[in-house]
């Protein structure tokens, strides 16, 4: 029973990682951009959300509704203003650009919000749990995982069925050929980053509800998002979700063997996948 | 091989020169006319990064002392200008060491102040000792600043530290837990970092002290800072039925763990955590779960001391901070102030305040009752350490601010009466 509990808690934790990973996977799959500022964007959106909640007394649901368009706007501006100039065959310029952005964002947030630790009060939901065959499952982790699943499915459908999705897949497969066929890749890129950051608006609310955020926290979750993307397969949306779940289960099962080992075992699983199947579990390449 | 930066005047030095020149010209005329000497103080504080909450009170104290000493400092019948060169360590020990080296060698400071936190005090103290610059530090358990430098069996010539030690905080925790009805089972949450290793140590840490006091200790192995899942530890505490949860946990991990404890139906009667509950903002971030958590107290406005610079009480200092910043007082406030009390006192007593060795001799001979307590290096646990009091406190729902810190334990340092008894934590 102890291990069943560990796997369930791990899957729920994996949902959290998946929320970070799908946006990163989208950006990496389409533009080969590793967004170092990914975590800082989560913190920025969370802090905006916390301030909105404090000023207008809004609940977390409304905050999500506001943060998603703000995230989309930030993503669009980020791509149009900075990343479109750095994107190309060479991954280095975009890496350096997002690294610089990460530092700039941290200092900007420190100036605006100071060094305080903050969180979002999501009411009694946060501490509630349900009993599943004598295993206590927190409502909040359950919601986080459910939302991650929905986001993954929705993004998959957008990529598969819409005109934008076709353009995006074309731009990802061969940028020059797509351009020749009349796809405005720069516009597609801006939309892709807008979606990636909009998803972070949702992740930010859950992050602020389940733990705390402070301006320098951004880097902490970046590594897990990155590992989830690699495990699942770069550029695969379902891969990012599955990668997140695998990482979550590895960490929780590992920590049940010994609490000090959890994160280490997560890293080991990541390294094993990288060694045996460097293209990732769900990648077709 | 030539180093391009070693020849000629670089852009940076030129700019510094211009800046210094402008500063000189902008000084009031009467100061320039005196052509008095300038005592340079290097001040390194974590203004940005993880430790930035500590840097906030440092910056406040710096503003105060600059105003206070605007007319210079009188010592031995002469007036000296005080130039405080402030640097941001960015919460990075390597950066702090680099800055300290620059201040000692290029700026020729007379005193170094690594204002706060282990990550700044330790590397800067190392540099101070190396370059023979008197160094005054605080807000890190004294072992953290003395032991890594081989201080167990030697004294240092230039670096002086004032704060409490691990033995004090451990005894304070044990005293707090002794005062309440419980099954005497303690679950320990400790991070896998320098602090956590020392706290969990089987000879000098928390477990042996607690066993000696009759407690049973359940200590799962240490967690990585910023763990997202604490279910393994929570299960262990639940199975053992720990009434008390103790340890050293930073705010983010503390909220993650506390929320998961509530989800998993584990609600210890007492929750006493070091480090993570220092700042009111961190307790507020806990939401409703923050009520009734207990922690160590280095300083509160209720301390029965006065400033030697302004004769203000702690309460008056805290009120000034709250009026200026609009934020609730924090514990480092008293220490940030006391730091300058000692500096001013030392410079006034120094045989020659422009001489590093003379300043050091005066520093060593300090005997001053500051905002945080008596500072005297002659009767500390180590020749370079002066211990200051530590008390136990509990966060309760407050009137003016969401949470107030109430003093509940004063046995170890009976400098005041407890304001209340430790109450069971509400869930």
UniProtKB/TrEMBL annotation, chain A:
State where the protein is found: Cell membrane
Which parts of the chain span the membrane according to its record?
6-30, 37-56, 95-115, 135-159, 188-209, 221-247, 259-276
Signal peptide per UniProt? none
Q: Which residues form a coiled coil?
A: none
Tell me which UniProt keywords the record has, alphabetically: Amino-acid transport, Cell membrane, Membrane, Transmembrane, Transmembrane helix, Transport
Q: Which GO terms describe its cellular component?
A: plasma membrane
Q: Which GO terms describe its molecular function?
A: transmembrane transporter activity
One Pfam family matching this protein:
BPD_transp_2
Main localization is membrane
User: GO:BP terms for this protein?
Assistant: amino acid transport
Q: What is the topology of this protein in the membrane according to its UniProt annotation?
A: Multi-pass membrane protein
UniProt record similarity statement: Belongs to the binding-protein-dependent transport system permease family. LivHM subfamily.
Report the protein name in the record: Branched-chain amino acid ABC transporter permease
Organism in which the protein naturally occurs? Allomesorhizobium camelthorni
TrEMBL record, chain B:
Per the record, the domain of life is Bacteria
* Stored PROSITE patterns: TAT
InterPro entries on file: BCAA_transport (IPR051010), Leu-bd (IPR028081), Leu_Ile_Val-bd (IPR000709), Peripla_BP_I (IPR028082), TAT_signal (IPR006311)
A single GO BP term for this record reads: amino acid transport
* Family label: Belongs to the leucine-binding protein family.
- Which residues are in the Leucine-binding protein domain? 38-384
The protein in question is named ABC transporter substrate-binding protein
What UniProt keywords are attached to this protein's entry?
Amino-acid transport, Signal, Transport
Q: Which Gene3D superfamilies match?
A: 3.40.50.2300
């Amino acid at each position: 029973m102890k291990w069943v509990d560990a796997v369930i808690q791990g899957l729920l934790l994996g949902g959290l990682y998946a929320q970070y990973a799908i946006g990163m996977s989208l950006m990496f799959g389409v533009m080969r951009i590793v967004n170092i500022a990914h975590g800082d964007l989560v913190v920025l959106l969370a802090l905006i959300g916390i301030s909105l909640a404090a000023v207008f007394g809004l609940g977390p649901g409304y905050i999500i509704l506001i943060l998603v368009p703000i995230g989309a706007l930030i993503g669009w501006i980020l791509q149009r203003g900075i990343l479109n100039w750095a994107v190309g065959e060479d991954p280095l310029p975009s890496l350096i650009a997002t690294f610089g952005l990460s530092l700039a964002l941290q200092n900007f947030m420190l100036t605006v919000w100071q060094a305080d630790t903050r969180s979002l009060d999501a009411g009694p939901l946060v501490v509630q749990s349900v009993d599943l065959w004598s295993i206590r499952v927190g409502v909040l982790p359950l919601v986080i995982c459910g939302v991650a699943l929905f986001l993954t499915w929705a993004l998959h459908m957008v990529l598969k069925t819409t005109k934008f999705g076709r353009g995006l897949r074309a731009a990802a497969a061969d940028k020059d050929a797509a351009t020749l066929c009349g796809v405005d890749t720069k516009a597609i890129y801006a939309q892709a980053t807008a979606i990636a950051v909009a998803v972070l608006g949702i992740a930010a609310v859950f992050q602020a509800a389940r733990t705390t955020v402070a301006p320098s926290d951004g880097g902490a979750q970046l590594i897990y998002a990155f590992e989830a993307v690699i495990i699942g397969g770069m550029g695969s949306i379902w891969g990012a979700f599955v990668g997140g779940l695998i990482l979550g289960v590895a960490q929780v099962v590992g920590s049940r063997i010994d609490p000090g080992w959890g994160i280490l075992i997560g890293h080991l699983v990541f390294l094993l996948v990288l060694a045996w199947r460097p293209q990732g579990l769900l990648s077709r390449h | 091989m030539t180093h391009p930066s070693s020849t000629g005047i670089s852009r940076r030095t030129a700019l510094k020169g211009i800046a210094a020149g402008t500063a000189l010209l902008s000084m009031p005329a009467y100061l320039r006319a005196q052509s008095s000497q300038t005592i340079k103080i290097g001040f390194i504080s974590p203004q940005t990064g993880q430790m930035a909450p500590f840097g906030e009170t440092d910056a406040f104290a710096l503003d105060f002392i600059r105003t206070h000493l605007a007319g210079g400092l009188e010592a031995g019948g002469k007036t000296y200008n005080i130039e405080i060169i402030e640097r941001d360590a960015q919460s990075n020990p390597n950066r702090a060491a680099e800055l300290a080296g620059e201040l000692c060698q290029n700026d020729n400071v007379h005193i170094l102040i690594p204002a706060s936190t282990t990550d700044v005090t330790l590397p800067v103290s190392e540099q101070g000792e190396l370059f023979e610059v008197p160094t005054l530090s605080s807000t890190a358990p004294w072992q953290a600043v003395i032991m890594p430098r081989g201080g167990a069996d030697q004294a240092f010539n230039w670096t002086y530290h004032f704060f409490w030690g691990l033995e004090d905080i451990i005894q304070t925790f044990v005293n707090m837990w002794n005062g309440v009805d419980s099954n005497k089972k303690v679950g320990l949450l400790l991070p896998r970092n320098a602090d956590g290793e020392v706290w969990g140590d089987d000879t000098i840490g928390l477990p042996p002290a607690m066993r000696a006091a009759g407690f049973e200790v359940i200590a799962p192995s240490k967690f990585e800072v910023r763990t997202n899942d604490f279910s393994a530890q929570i299960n262990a505490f639940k199975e053992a039925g720990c009434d008390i949860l103790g340890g050293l946990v930073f705010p983010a991990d503390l909220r993650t763990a506390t929320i998961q404890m509530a989800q998993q139906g584990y609600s210890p009667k007492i929750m006493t955590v070091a480090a993570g509950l220092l700042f009111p903002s961190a307790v507020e971030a806990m939401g409703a779960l923050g009520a009734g958590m207990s922690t160590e107290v280095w300083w509160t406005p209720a301390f029965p001391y006065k400033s030697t610079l302004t004769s203000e009480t702690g309460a008056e200092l805290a009120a000034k901070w709250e009026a200026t910043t609009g934020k609730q007082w924090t514990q480092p406030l008293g220490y940030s102030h006391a730091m300058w009390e000692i500096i001013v006192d030392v410079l006034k007593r120094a045989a020659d305040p422009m001489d590093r060795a003379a300043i050091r001799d005066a520093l060593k001979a300090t005997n001053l009752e500051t905002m945080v307590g008596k500072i005297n290096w002659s009767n500390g646990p180590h020749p370079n350490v002066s211990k200051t009091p530590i008390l136990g406190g509990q966060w309760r729902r407050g009137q003016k601010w969401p949470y107030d810190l109430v003093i509940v334990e004063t046995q170890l340092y009976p400098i005041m009466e407890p304001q209340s008894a430790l109450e069971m934590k509400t869930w």
